[in-house]
Design goal:
The complex is a heterodimer of chains A (275) and B (287). Chain A has ten helices and twelve strands. In chain A, helix 5 crosses helix 6. Chain B is mainly α and 287 residues long. In chain B, 74% of the residues lie in helices and 5% in strands. Chain B has a two-stranded antiparallel sheet. The longest helix of chain B is centred in the C-terminal third of the chain and has 32 residues. Classes of the chains: A alpha/beta (275), B mainly alpha (287). Chains A and B meet through helix 2, helix 3, helix 4 and helix 5 of A and helix 9, helix 10 and helix 11 of B. Chain A: GO terms for molecular function: ATP binding; ATP hydrolysis activity; ATPase-coupled transmembrane transporter activity.
Chain lengths: 275, 287
């Protein structure tokens, strides 16, 4: 049955590590079915913590949270309901080495479907489909330590796709990748739209946003909550917002006798004209 | 060009940090190379890992039971031939089976050479008041022991070199090893690499910032600190890995996929192997 209401609804969600260090503060957010939501935020703005809360791995310190119309605020303490949530929501961790814990790629991709108790034939079909979707079928027999950074990321996504979740959460999937590998990965993530997945992706790399997002939410690194939400082109044009949230910075440099400042993305290219 | 005092010292004796980096790098390289042999298209590589593990376990048992010297020698030479037939370079088998065995097993067996009674072959001494006599029975016992160990080590080397570690672990299930044990072993193997890389980087980072000599006390303090760093990183990683498992539906009950299928060739391999081993045992009993 197609999801009619929001996929996620968060009201006043806060999270403190060890009860002290604030990672999220009073987050309100609604995610609709079929959205390709990019959460933009500088390091330490709470993006990864938010994804772990959405996947039911962390219990929020305060606030309330709903997924698929059911309240899941305490789901981290309830293994049965957590399994129900993990069947519908897949999380790709920031560090692929954390996600790839089996001796071979095939075993890793099969791990999730097997834990869901699917019949063997269905597991094999899903594994083959996920490997094909991420274009890593040729790596099935390899050990994770034999893979390049880009291959690891693609296999990590395949481990989640094999479970056929309705929602895919991706934690900085393009971090530390070379430009070509990053472009290929963006293309694959964009393809999840055709598979009917709702995607929530965190990043601080502005150049991948237009290729993926249907909506962008910006997290403030001081506020640790959303400070803006809108269409990608609208957000990316708002230079003041991007400077304020530490996604670009005022860059001072010299051209002979001429010194000037201009906004400069962390990971984007440093190209501009002088007249 | 004149070498600097530091480089002269380094040539003379590698520092503890350099030795560790070299050791860690070699360990990773050796394991990766071992897997390349297992991926080659050879006779033993094609055999179902369960068939191989089962038959090799039986072969180990027979090797331990057989006493006949020519039979043991034939078994060992046969295994060496099998290694070559399955496209393993002789040098690789030789290094793994012939270098260590005479050294360590020889040392263990050496006293027996002078302690077992029998027809005297020759004597050494007297050295002071001691005369050492070597008997024919002693030579036979030591030779049997050396051949038995050589054949066993060759069996183990052939199994490890022609089977990928992941398949070897899965094949342990034929001995009713619990799934959870197999999975934990697999994960250990997986993360040992990661921690080895981390260790290598820690030591490389240290080496790149070290100029001149450091005292042994300083080195000990640094090793202690590195062990702490490694410990805390592996703890964090184990928490993250557990979260990644839970996120994919893990709830404590391990479920695995049976990925092997016994083919006719595998059954033929097992049948022939069992027949040959049985024959060897019968021949030994009859002598």
């Amino acid at each position: 049955m197609a999801q009619t209401g929001p996929i996620f609804r968060l009201e006043g969600i806060s999270y403190r590590y060890h009860g002290r260090h604030s990672a999220l503060d009073q987050v309100d957010l609604v995610v609709e079915p079929g959205e390709q939501l990019v959460i933009l935020g500088a390091n330490g703005s709470g993006k990864s913590t938010l994804l772990k809360i959405l996947d039911g791995l962390y219990r929020p310190t305060s606030g309330r949270l709903w997924a698929f119309g059911e309240e899941i605020t305490d789901v981290a303490d309830d293994p049965e309901r957590a399994r129900w949530l993990h069947r519908r929501v897949g999380l790709v961790f920031q560090d692929p080495d954390v996600q790839l814990f089996s001796p071979t790629v095939y075993d890793d991709v099969a791990f999730g479907p097997l834990q869901l108790g699917w019949p063997e034939e269905q597991v094999r079909e899903q594994v083959a489909r996920a490997l094909r979707a991420m274009e890593v079928a040729h790596l099935a027999d390899r050990a994770p330590y034999e893979l390049s950074g880009g291959e690891k990321r693609r296999v990590a996504i395949a481990t989640v796709l094999a479970m056929d979740p309705e929602v895919v959460l991706l934690d900085e999937p393009t971090a530390n990748l070379d430009p070509r590998t990053r472009a290929a990965l963006v293309h694959l993530i964009r393809g999840m739209r055709d598979l009917g997945k709702t995607v929530i992706l965190t990043t601080h790399e502005l150049d991948i946003v237009p290729g993926i997002a249907t909506r962008v939410v910006v997290f403030g690194d001081q506020e640790r909550r959303p400070v803006a939400s809108g269409h990608p082109s609208e957000i990316l044009r708002d230079t003041d917002l991007l400077v304020r949230t530490n996604l670009i910075h005022e860059h001072l440099h010299w051209h002979g006798e001429l010194a000037h400042t201009h906004p400069h993305a962390h990971d984007g290219e440093h190209l501009h004209e002088h007249r | 060009m004149t070498a600097s005092p530091t480089s002269r010292r380094r040539r003379a004796r590698k520092s503890f940090v350099e030795r560790t980096i070299t050791g860690v790098g070699a360990a990773i390289e050796q394991t990766v190379y071992a897997e390349t042999y297992a991926r080659q298209d050879g006779f033993l590589q094609r055999v179902d890992p369960r068939a191989k593990v089962g038959l090799f376990a039986l072969a180990l048992l027979v090797t331990g039971l057989v006493h006949d010297l020519p039979l043991l020698a034939g078994l060992w030479l046969g295994l060496l031939g099998l290694g070559i037939a399955t496209r393993l370079p002789f040098r690789v088998i030789a290094v793994r089976t012939m270098l260590g065995v005479p050294l360590f097993t020889g040392l263990v067996a050496l006293p027996a050479l002078f302690l077992v009674d029998g027809r005297s072959l020759f004597t050494i001494g007297p050295v002071g008041s001691i005369t050492l006599t070597v008997s024919d029975q002693a030579v036979l016992s030591v030779a049997t022991f050396l051949l038995r160990v050589s054949a066993s080590v060759t069996l183990a080397a052939l199994l490890v070199l022609t089977t990928r570690w992941a398949d070897l672990l899965k094949a342990l299930r034929i001995f009713r090893v619990p799934d959870v044990f197999v999975i934990v072993l697999g994960m250990t193997y997986r993360y040992v690499f990661l921690l080895l890389r981390l260790t290598e980087n820690l030591f490389l980072g240290r080496a790149s910032r070290t100029v001149g000599r450091t005292s042994s006390g300083e080195q000990r303090r640094w090793v202690g600190a590195s062990m702490g760093t490694l410990m805390s990183r592996s703890l964090k990683m184990s928490n993250d890995v557990y979260a990644a498992m839970v996120a994919r539906g893990f709830s404590g009950d391990v479920r695995t996929l049976a990925t092997f299928r016994m083919r006719d060739e595998d059954w033929l391999f097992v049948s022939l192997g069992v027949a040959l081993l049985g024959l060897a045992w019968l021949v030994d009993l009859s002598r």
